[in-house]
Write a structure and sequence with these properties.
It is a single chain. By secondary structure, the protein is α/β, with parallel strands linked by helices. The protein has a domain of about 325 residues: Alpha-Beta Complex (Amidase signature (AS) enzymes). The protein contains 16 helices and eleven strands. It has an eleven-stranded mixed beta sheet, sandwiched between helices. The structure holds glutamine.
């Protein structure tokens, strides 16, 4: 095992600083990647963020980046910076399990577009991270393999479903990670783990090669140490992709260039419905300090409203499972991963045994509720009604964003809960995402930034929601806030650097 002290100064730096050191030749991409792999070796047995570690793939990419620099080629802004990938994104030749037994042993046969893009800019992929099975959950406790631990307090969950990616970045096992967000799965774990996470506008980032959960809601996005890093990674993965017809033909702005630090005159709407009942007072106070900090920088604040927000949870839990029940029909034992060893009289019996053995309880619950909501006689009452209420919610969000440039709220009503605390209470678990659903249902971008700690030392996250395709604006606000504060630079005690 490597001496932690060797790499601590290095990997505790944000990705943009590491990239600058690599570009200037001060440190090689191979050395940074080795430090990342050493830290994974040291910490992953405790944190359990990774399902698969890919040292050969990572070191080969790092060497290619070093060789390119030696040949005098110009390196991109993230060249040589290691990245972790959520295990529902395909990396050619690497296991892709979605933390499900049904895909146990399955290796992807192509790269997701986002993976192709991070490879193309010279980022070494160090491994695949744990998640709730098929991205269904808020704690990684629905992983079929193991639970990931929150680096800030190992007895707590890291959030989910991108809990492995969030924990990997929080413990700086990798400077950056990719996650996916259908109802909060990037922002909620970012909040629980004290890091920055961006869910982009629906259509901003290609979903090709992301194993689909709720296809009208899913977006791939960045988990990072700060807004500069999130902006850099988003610039790499964003943009139209002919292989995903829902990806939008909208030019990708210079996200880093938009980080001017200037929020003068910006109108910030504090979402009234997400500041009251059910929100932990410590969380509320902390989010209000963000509003005050922005006022101090010349922004104005006011009260915004999303009147239909109470419907966000039921609408999400109809549309998400309905789409999931359709997406997950492909896992039948014929094409991918697990097939039952039991003798089956016919293919129907084989499908049903395979699925009964392969899917975990939460996935089964959603396939059943989704199938029910789509079935003849119930479609109009549930699915269609949910789609109509989704439109009302989208109109609410758009109206609020007509009055304000960004919306501010907590990312989560509570901070990280204990492992095992909510597993037997699915509704309480569903409530963990009450603040994040609206952005997915409305298709707009949402950013979580660390904004403080509870008395018990757990991170608190503030969420900025922006207009469609205005990721640059929420990143600018988040970055301005981070320039003025230091919550995002605090590191978990297990890194030996103090909290
Ligand atoms: N936690 C939410 C759920 O359980 C959101 C998941 C996600 O965004 N993938 O579905």
């Amino acid at each position: 095992m490597n001496d932690m002290a060797d790499d601590i100064g290095l990997l505790n730096r944000p990705a943009h600083e590491l990239a600058a050191l690599i570009r200037s030749g001060e440190i090689s991409a191979v050395a940074v990647t080795e430090a990342s792999l050493a830290r994974i070796e040291a910490l992953n047995p405790t944190v359990k963020a990774f399902l698969t570690v890919t040292p050969d793939l990572a070191l080969e990419a790092a060497k290619a980046t070093d060789d390119a620099l030696a040949r005098g080629e110009e390196l991109g802004p993230l060249a040589g910076v290691p990245i972790a990938i959520k295990d529902n994104l395909c990396v050619d030749g690497v296991l892709c399990t979605c933390a499900s037994k049904i895909l146990d042993g399955y290796r992807a046969v192509y790269d997701a577009t986002v993976v192709e893009r991070v490879k193309a800019v010279g980022m070494p992929i160090v491994g695949k991270t744990n998640l709730d099975e098929f991205a269904m959950g808020s704690s990684t406790e629905n992983s079929a393999f193991f639970v990931t631990h929150n680096p800030w307090d190992l007895s707590k969950v890291p959030g989910g479903s991108s809990g492995g990616s969030a924990a990997a970045v929080a413990a700086r096992m990798a400077p950056l990670a990719l996650g996916s967000d259908t109802g909060g799965s990037i922002r909620q774990p970012a909040s629980f783990c004290g890091i920055t996470g961006l869910k982009t506008t629906y259509g901003r980032v290609s979903r090709y090669g992301l194993v689909g959960y709720g296809s009208s809601l899913d977006q791939v996005g960045a988990l990072a140490a700060d807004c500069v890093d999130a902006a850099l990674l988003t610039a790499v993965i964003a943009g139209q992709d002919p292989r995903d017809t829902t990806s939008a033909d909208v030019p990708v702005p210079d996200y880093v260039g938009e980080l001017t630090g200037d929020v003068t005159g910006l109108r910030v709407g504090i979402v009234r419905e997400l500041m009251g009942e059910g929100i932990d007072p410590e969380v509320r106070e902390s989010v209000l300090t963000v509003a005050r900090a922005l006022e101090g920088m010349g922004a104005s604040t006011g009260e915004a409203s999303i009147p239909h927000i109470d419907y966000a949870l039921p609408v999400y839990y109809l549309i998400g499972p309905a789409e999931a029940s359709s997406n997950l029909a492909r896992f039948d034992g014929m094409r991918y991963g697990h097939r039952t060893k039991e003798r089956a009289a016919d293919h129907i019996e084989m499908y049903s045994r395979t699925r009964a053995e392969g899917f975990g309880p939460e996935v089964k619950r959603r396939i059943m509720t989704g199938t029910y909501a789509l079935s003849a006689g119930y479609y109009d009452a549930y699915y269609l009604k949910a789609q109509k209420v989704r439109t009302l919610l989208r109109l609410d969000v758009e109206a609020a964003l007509g009055q304000f440039d960004v919306l501010l709220s907590p990312t989560t009503p509570l901070t990280a809960f204990g492992i095992g605390e909510l597993v037997n209470d699915p509704i309480a678990m569903y409530m963990a995402d009450i603040c994040t659903f609206a952005a997915n249902l409305a298709g707009v971008p949402g950013l979580s930034v660390p904004c403080g700690f509870t008395k018990a030392g757990l991170p608190i996250g503030a969420q900025f929601t922006g207009r469609a395709f205005e990721e640059g604006t929420i990143l600018r606000v988040g970055d301005a806030y981070q320039r003025a504060t230091s919550h995002h630079t605090s590191l978990p005690g297990l890194l030996g650097a103090g909290g």
